[in-house]
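Q: What does the assembly look like in three dimensions?
Context provided by user:
Components: two
Sequences:
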Amino acid sequence: MAQFTASVHQNEFLPDGGTDVHAIVTVTASGAGAAGQSGSGDVGEIVIIDTSGSMTGSNIVAAQQAAVAAIDQIHDGVWFAVIGGSHVASLVFPGGRGLGMVRMDAHARAAARAAVASLRADGGTAMGTWLQLAARVFGTVPSLGQRHAILLTDGANQHETPEQLTATIGAVTGQFQCDCRGVGAAWQVDEVRRIATALLGSVDIIPSPDQMAGQFAELMQQAMSRGIADARLRMWVPQGAEILFVRQVAPTVEDLTGRRQEVNPLTGAYPTGSWGDESRDYHVAIRLAAKAIGQEQLAARVQLALGEEVVAQGLVKAQWSNDDTLTTRISPEVAHYTGQTELASMIQDGLAAKAAGDTVTATTKLGRAVQLAAETGNDEATTRLRKVVDIDDAETGTVRLRRSVDKLDEMALDTASTKTTRIKK
Amino acid sequence: MSAATVLRCPGCGDETSAGDRFCEACGEQLVTALATDADATDPAAERAVASEQERAAGVCRSCGGVVGEDGYCQTCGTKAALARDHFDAEPAPWVAMTCDRGVRHRRNEDAGAVSADPEPSSRAVLVVCDGVSSSTDSDVASLAAATAAQQVLSAGRARGIGTPDSQTAAIVARLEAAADAAREAVVASTAADSPDPASCTFVAAVVEDGRIVAGSVGDSRAYWLPDRGEGVALTVDDSMAAELIARGVPREEAESGPQAHAITRWLGVDAPEHTPRTRTQDIDSDGWLLVCSDGLWNYCSEARDLAGLVRRTAAEHDGRPLATTAALVDWANAQGGRDNITVALARLTSGRT
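A: Here is the predicted structure of the complete assembly.
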């Protein structure tokens, strides 16, 4: 049986007239078990492989191997399918006339491998059609309580407009989760990140084709270890209070504020997808009406809910005090993640400015990113930043854009921008 | 306390005395090193857990919403009062008591206990005890003391040989027995080896046979407040301020001085003697018997002013005792609520035999 805990890090003391309460809530799950064992329905997995013309050659061979590596990790009994995507999407496996999925067993595994081997690279790229087909395929198995896909692409979404993709993302959001991977340097990080973020998945770069199989096996292993099908973060705030934001801040930064679904007028739920044995940190900020010195109140109840069942709760409090030594203290956890969140946006904004040829803005933003990475001890980010800028002084954020930057390094910096480090104890 | 170092409470900034474990002004714990010694078997820690559970899962006093299992209102988030932090009693429609933590203190170390026969103005007992906040378990001690005293006073029916004087003497004897019982309850509530044994004040008033007999130890008070004419203080404080007043210092000045709240007599293991000083008052007109802690009288000390306050407040609440005690507590909180507040009232009418 899965166990959940929630712990809160904050400075609950507010000065006279203070209104804004910040807290980091760490939610930890253990004993999650394997996917499909929690009794909350069957598990469905779809592998989506880019089969556009640009994949011709070593890429399509590597993609076939990656799809097979993923299929090999799917547990027996899990419903699965394989989709090939170009400017149109087609169901590669299972074959037959209509859409459908099959339960994994030795026979299905062999048949799927054979089907994947027949993939040919041809045509353009319209990822929206891939997502639409995946949603329809998942829809053929009503018993699914956990739906997850892995999407591989190597190029830009040339055969539909950004608006079309946005509309499709909106239409399929909430229907399945999707981890996205881009191979090589010809795909657009922004575009793929939009898909992954909306579908509660991750985005990453696979620099060279020979790394694909390893990554896909790992992704599918992870999916198979998520025994908690679907959890929601719930947040209650007092009447009259305003939610400034709700963010996941570890392991990656994701702004959840706009994803609120009303449970009741004072409580909202934010989808978090499936969970394995893991810990996630959330930064919540609430604006209250100020109370008198000495008054204490609850600013938020932050809960993890499985369906209607609340399995963990953390209390965010507020207490007004006229003691400066209490009210001026900043929670180290809040400070750390505020820095990490800014780091993510500085990297993304800096790279966007660089791409637009705005060297001044790019230098300023990436300089600030270097400074924040150093301050918050995010060595991975520092290492990635070093490949894009020359650092003169990390403490002041003084950097110069490097003359020649490997496009792959720049994309790696971009895709990893939302990855955060936990506070050093 | 050395002249060079002024110790201040980290909670409210008030001056504190060396050796104090809790701030007299707000109840903040001052000696944190001692607190960390607490282990799982510490009775104070166990009590803290117990009182968390007591936290009334009821109606929010701030907005009327429902209090959740976590002790906070499910609508406005206000921390629900502990049952110990705010309670009231109405043993008969003519007698009521409200006891409240106030605004500044972290704990309610006041306590009150009342009982009454159903027939108006017949027989009633009103007891208030104010825990001394420089000791550890004063909240437990004061409640135990008030309850024990009230039980002794309600149970006693001895009337002497029936003359008014012997009746009064019998009630005085009961008050002394009640003070003894209260003291024993205080002593029993702290460990024998405690460096800060609990202590509290004591005031009790008995209504019987058309008269009030009141007695006190410390600075909690009883007043007879007739509907017309002057209010009468039925008790004299055992305090530094009272000694100054006795020496001719004006009341306002004496009661606002640095040692104003230092009491010279109390109930506790370290108290040399605790015989209540008593006074008898015939109920010769309609009026209110008021028994209260300094949480109320701090804001209204003169009997004349208190009489006006109680009359006004009662009039605003149709003369209902419980509504009036609650309103007087609200009034003290509105004045700042610097201390715990206990207010007990009995509505008395003359003409009974």
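Follow-up: The interface with chain B takes residues 236-241, 266, 288, 292, 294, 296-299, 301, 313, 315, 322-323, 325 of chain A (CB under 8 Å).
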